[in-house]
Amino acid sequence: MTSFQRKTGLGKGLSALLDDNDSVNQPKAVAEAPAPTLLAGNISEVNINDIETNPYQPRTEFDQVALNELSESIKVQGLIQPITVRKHGDKYQLISGERRLRASKLAGLAQIPAYIRDADNQQMLEMALIENIQRENLNAIEVALSFQMMIDECSLKPEQLGDRVGKNRTTVSNYLRLLKLPPVIQASIRDGKISMGHARALINVEEAEKQLFIHQEILDKGLSVRKVEELVRSINHVQVKPNKVKPSGVSFEYQKLQTDLASKFATKVKLKVNENGKGAIEIPFVSNDDLNRILELLDW
User: Fold this and answer.
1) Number of structural domains, the chain?
2) What residues does the ParB-like N-terminal domain cover (predicted)?
3) Does 69 qualify as catalytic in the annotation?
4) Who contacts 169 (Cβ-Cβ below 8 Å, separation ≥6)?
5) 173 to each of 32, 51, 121, 160, 189, how far by Cα in Å?
6) β-pairing, 111-117 with 43-47?
7) What is the Cα–Cα distance from 56 to 129, expressed in whole angstroms?
8) What is this structure's pTM?
9) Are 83 and 96 in contact (CB under 8 A)?
10) Tell me: the pLDDT tens digits for 69-126?
11) Model confidence pLDDT, tens digit, residues 163-184
12) Catalytic residue chosen out of the listed positions 98, 126, 131, 142
């Protein structure tokens, strides 16, 4: 297949790279060779087996049912929207359109229409990320990982990243903070078990134990975002500070028990024990809702 080259898009801006549909420069035809197959806008038909996936693709999950539906459509109508690739040695590397590429493979296509672009690694990452964000195809964790990758790979500050992807600094920071949540919570966000609203509430809780407790409450009771925000406020109202609640004369075992109880109930717990081993456990609450939460934990 004849290769095509075009002037680089460097210096034109990311929007130009994504939207530029100018014709590519064509080499002079060789008399013995057949003319290459071209579509409108001088888009080349590329051998589908010569296309490598984008190593900077932020999407990790693809809906198989949706892929099958798109594949059936491609079998009947063909691929309407070309993918975008760059030359990579003797192969081509996908810049955007992985869902279309996968569906085309399922449809059994041997060739696929593609724009051929010049792009460096940073542009590859930016184009793949922005295409998916604009289409809202990424889950919150994929967005967060993509933001972190752009910061690491492109040496960007959060405010600079926000300018690149059309998000304000606070939004970018909130996504990045998701990556500090415990892995089990990140998995729930990725799998759609809890929403971004739930996640934004959880990142305002400092201790991982409290985050995990609230996360389990969301899963078990189907708590709304508003309920979670109220729970977070009540929990944050009483800070658990194990180093300041250790009563004098209490053994290490009791101190650890006190700390464990504080984590379980997500509130300050005071353990009083006398020399004879008798004592009391104090569990404060800040509202009726907080009291009901504690009673439920006690199976009351």
Assistant:
1) 2
2) 44-133
3) no
4) 158, 159, 162
5) 58, 35, 24, 12, 17
6) antiparallel
7) 8
8) 0.50
9) yes
10) 889 999 988 888 888 888 888 889 888 888 899 999 999 999 999 988 877 777 777 7
11) 877 788 888 888 999 999 998 8
12) 98
